[in-house]
Predict the 3D structure of the following.
Amino acid sequence: MTGIAGRLGRLVAQRLHRMGTHHVVGIDRRPIGNLPKDVEHLQVDLRSRRTRDVFRSGDVDAVIHLGLMHDPRRTAEELHTWNVVGTARLLEDCADFKVRKVVFLSSANVYGPRADNTQFLTEEAPLMAAVDFPAIRDLVEADMQATSFFWRSGGRDLETVVLRPVHILGSVRNAASNYLRLKRIPVIMGYDPMVQVIHERDVTEAIVLSLREGIHGVLNLAGPGEVPLSVVIRELKKPTIPLPAPMFEAMVKGMWRFHLTSFPVPELTHIRYTCMVDGSRARKVLGFRPQFSMKETIRAVLPPGGE
Amino acid sequence: MGRPAKSLLSRLIESGFTEEELERIKSLPTRQNEYGYDPFGFNREEAKIAMLVVRYLYRHYFRVQVHNIENVPPGRVMLVSNHAGQLPFDGMNICAALLFDAVPPRMGRAMIEKFVPGLPYVSYLFQRWGQIVGTPDNCQRLLEDEEAILVFPEGAKGISKPYTKRYQLQDFGLGFMRLALATDSPVVPVAVVGSEEQAPAFNVKPLARALGVPAFPLMPFPPFFPAVPLPSRYQIYFGEPLSFVGHADDDDEQIEQLVKHVRLTIESMLRVGLKSRRSIFI
């Protein structure tokens, strides 16, 4: 499993540990504390030779690839070598060493929020995210790589699953959760798109379900439903700061420059236009049903116990 | 969290409706989640204020006369209408007829131009009020959910046509027919008389071209821009539902034949409607 030091990585590791059916080896160059005892952690670079050694030394049954880098502050080259080249090499290893299953965690964001988006995008919709937001081209490319790997490896014994979950909420430190954790939440005046959110534990569950034999393909993961962004914020009982779009953009641009915010300007399109998916294929193929209600999912961004 | 107590504003809005109208709004078949929104963002409570304004325009401004609305069948249905008048009051009045005069009441859902979600405020208000972005996929989903879809196959060419071309149907797109075939939905032809006189405009073609918009309509009297429609009296005729046999992927020529049938039906309904009209405004 790559990216095991991330919040979601740890959740998946704990879940697999509790099932007791898998021996988990995590690859992550970041340090990590309090993993279950029998979970191995190799603190190496995804792109290094030692990653390949893992495949060579033991019979790797399945690879869960959560280790994409989402940091928009990094240079384009670094993101490219990590996300695109790194994923390519990992997939190559999977093919070379007779891995049975690859689960790749992408995101519904690869479709991109757009004004003329159809309400529910299916897995066949074009991946337009990079058109308005070139900095995440590498994430789109990595998704396409995994998707085409799925098509190419169709005839062989290797099953590939590409998961595209909607905004994951919880203790995870992604853009959506960070945004909702702000004390006062800025919104764009005149825009209130419908959004879909999913609980981090529901995503964990979907990853575990994807490991079952016979599951393969590209699957959107939609959460428990659709609500306007304003309803999500109201559920959290947080005050909003409505700003006109040009002013908002100028402000974020300035703050970004001086490292005062972790949100790049193009990310604002997520609170302006819709990017929702049709999750019916995952329901059918994977038998995936979100266990957390809308309310529980939204409130998962709050610190535990705190109101 | 229980249901929040009704605010003063929403009580005020509700006091504008009659008991019967509130009952109609309440009985609209929708699929709302625990927060009161359907998958397309329609919210019955938030739509009430728009419904109140629409009812006023429908009953007192355009004084709409509705004919044969019982032709609208229950379940999935595609309403296909002529389109005119610079601003889509024809769509509004058809939806109002479905809401206030159909038995049982229906929520008409019009296919909105794709540039609309880019406009501030309009971007979400049209959704809250039950309208949808006009993509084929949205239309198909709603039909499969047994909803009533309103389609203007003339599109922008229809609504922006000049006064001199009133009641001349423009070319119909073929997409609606493919969707009707794909979802096995009956098509109800609708003829709207009155919309074509609400904004007698001419099209300033050079300006439209310079601005890169489909049309630049101007009226020969104040306020010149067709922002406020004239109170022409509307007549809305609902035709008998048409069922078509065919395949959604058929060649254009075959689909064209079916579309032509719908177009001719609306044309003849328009002719009958115009003949029986006594005056444009009374």
Summary: Chain A has one domain: 7-299.
